[in-house]
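Researcher: Please predict.
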Amino acid sequence: MLRPLLSICIATYNRASHIGETLDSIIPQLNDDVELLVVDGASTDNTEDVVRKYSEKEYRIRYVRLSYKGGVDQDYDKSVELARG
């Protein structure tokens, strides 16, 4: 992917039961100028498994799992820092 113009950033923690629905609603809106970045604040459920299944099929999804729970504000800050768009 070339550098995207827009990054959609999602910070998540233990939302395995909801993140799939969220991704399903966003993916149809993606194009080559848009990336979707999911930053996981060290979830203890299977959020990683769910998001990885999506990212394996959709190259515009990037998943980053943090090694610690920083809280929603820190996780959003990290997502903006990692965004390419």
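Model: The mean pLDDT is 95.
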